[in-house]
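Re-running the complex after MR caught last week's input typo. The corrected sequence lines follow. Everything else is unchanged.
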Amino acid sequence: MRTRSKAWKALLAAAALLAVVVAAATAAADSSRAAAGTLVVDKSFDLKTADPQRQFEVTGGIVAHVLYDTLLEFRGSDVATPRPSIATGYKASKDAKTYTFTLRKDVRFSDGTPLTAKDVVFSYRRLINLKGNPSFLLGGVTSIGAKGNYTVVLKSKTPNPALPAIVANASLGIVNSKVVKANGGTDAVGADKTDKAEAFLNRTSAGTGPYVLKSFNTTSRVELTANPRYTGRRKPKFANVVMRNVLAPAQLLSVQRGTNEISIDLSPDQAKPLFGNKNVNVQAVAGPNIWFLFANSNPKISEITSNKRFQNAIRYGLDYSGSVRLAGKGSGRAAGVVPSQFLGALGDSAAIEQNLAKAKAELAASGLKDPEVELEFPSDFTSSGLSFGVIAQKVQADLAKVGIKANLVGKPIATSLANYRAGTEQLGLWLWGPDYPDPNDYLVFLPGQLVGLRAGWAAGSDATLEALGRKAGSTADPAVRGKLFKQLQTQLNQRGPFFPLFQPGQVVAASKNLTGVVYNAQFQIDLSTIGSK
Amino acid sequence: MLPGRSRTRPPRVFLRFLARRFVALVFLGLGITLVAFLLTNLVPGDPAAANLGQRAIEDPAAVASFRERYGLDKSLPEQYGIYVWRLAHADLGESQQARLPVTQELGTFIPATAELALLSILIAVVVGVGLGILAAIRQNRLTDHLLRVLSLTGVSMPTFWLALVALYVFFFRLAWLPGTGRLDPQFSEPRHRTGFFTIDALLQGEWATAADAARHLVLPAVVLALYNIGLLTRYTRTAVLEVVNHDYIRAARAKGIPERRVVLRHVLRAALPAVITVIGLAFANVMTGAVLVENIFAWPGIGQYAYRSATTLDLPAIMGVSLFVAVVYIVVNFIVDVLYGVIDPRIRVA
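Corrected-run output:
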């Protein structure tokens, strides 16, 4: 009896101790919630660096966008018209080979140093010579020069009408050349081996943006604090911003519990409980990624998929609306390869629609009997919370209705990406994310170009389309260029080996008290424009 | 004579025992580097493709620069030779993701995991061993049955599910404990001394930060401990039951020694070797198996680092994590072996 009573006493004591710990924790939790003035942004990090000329990831772009101003910028949700930022404007030569940017004279770095054209030249040359992920952005630029202190001239060998959109990219943020050089930075040829400024830039920012870097950790959090010397348009509303690396399920709980809190990684499905929640504002809009299916046009890879009639059978056999529904709330139809937000995008009315009778007729005309092909996709990869496996099954079911047997071949992305890049997939399900918000980034889908070759579409396969691509890609006038890209996509839709499916929904959930939370296809959200009621 | 009661310890034998273990440890470590290196490099994927963007991978200059920087342009034996040479100089190479020395990154991530793991294992040992003893001395009674069900539940529940449920109940519904991370957003990280936020904050007199860091530890540590509590309860119960009916225990009781003293001084000591084995394994599990818990609780520890390194094919980082895991297991096993020797002198000379 004695032992039993002692055992129960011990259990009771343990329970009492637990109760005390929980009570203390609760009290502490209540006190912590009183803090304000800090904006909290939850995101699943893909962060590598805070060095603007090296970063080219989504999280890095959000951070760099408020640390480093660019010559031009996009505002709000717009990604079609670059606006003045450090530059008051620009002049393009008629052949779109020379761009002259005039700089504001009141721009100062966070240490008080005035910004001049030398800083722009240093930043751009450093970007090229680091040979990193974003270096290709200035790949077509052959000369970067300063005329005096406040004029920058960029020259390209071939017409480069995408340049205004490119200079708005956060990787082209302007750094304080003096400070970066003093900390091991260089813009000279060979910078990929000799530049040592990254460690410094991961501790201290050296830009003109509305925020400065307080702390930086690629796996836990990034802290920003308002730049007291900021002279631009984007005056920060919050004194501090903390970006936290949090998985989507935890983001879902945090955004419902907190104030001053934003979640930008929820899939449309995960965000379902938030729609109708009175404490949370939810935006679900079509993101800029294009999901597409392709049929390999190289007969050496497949006699079946390279058959043009067979490709038409796929084109008219797919249930595009069903795929959009499957992609979730906010998702939109990809009428062409250029996303709906960009210059030259096709309207929904120009999209190919499902026509099963026509699809079956095309299959019959192809001369193929009971065709069987392999459909490859990255089985371990999701984007916007959407699995490639789910969409691959939908495609398989759609094609079965036409009479095409598609065997699903899901492989880890490390393997499937290699096959895709080598152009050895018969049917492939992939996505293309924009490198910069300009239709020129989508010329890669033409014969002989990057994605075209992955679909076995060699140069010279469609001379008319290739000529139209060259013309669209080199036209300076945006209005004319937009029309040309629409023509290009219409023809690509009619006879190309690509079948654009949808743009998945991008969800941004924010506490009800927050204002100015706007999704942008290039930089996701601008932290400096977010305030509280 | 009771185990561990020897008054004549043979120091030379014990030192030889330690030396043997240490030499084996070095060879084991070297073997692990080879296996880890080969496995990491046999993964069907290209680190350049995983780390460079969709455009940069098409740029031969960018690809060449990447391969040269990380020595991927050399043959596999050359790469391994360089790796071992650098390893001998305490250099684990540079992470392809963060472009920082792997040793520096491990120095940041290991303390975060260690802080979590130590608290978790402390909870598991105190609760698990305590409940195991309780279940054994209450054998086949209601308490025993309840504890057996509870321990089975603890072992069976998937950790990621428990983590999500714990977050939902204690953070979202009850608001008793904070959600993710090591600190609330309004607190800045204390200056790095030990890497344990609670200790670093206390050393700097930042009491509020220390309290916040402690609160953030509670949920992930308890979730991580639940599996080990179940495991230790079951093993301790079995170990105690094996010795509780031995003659020398009966003799101790017959001599009128109080029951608490019999259990703690005689029964538990004899049952200890088996329990220590499980504690050693549990500690290694916690140190290295925190991937899911760390990801769900956004805990910037070695689990998150391993996840990020594996998903981006960051070879130097993967090697660093593999070595760390191996070293943890080796060291824990070494300590367990030594503890056996301390507890039971028969093992030293075996």
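None of the earlier attempt is carried over here. Chain B has a mean pLDDT of 85. The two ends of chain B are 18 Å apart (CA to CA).
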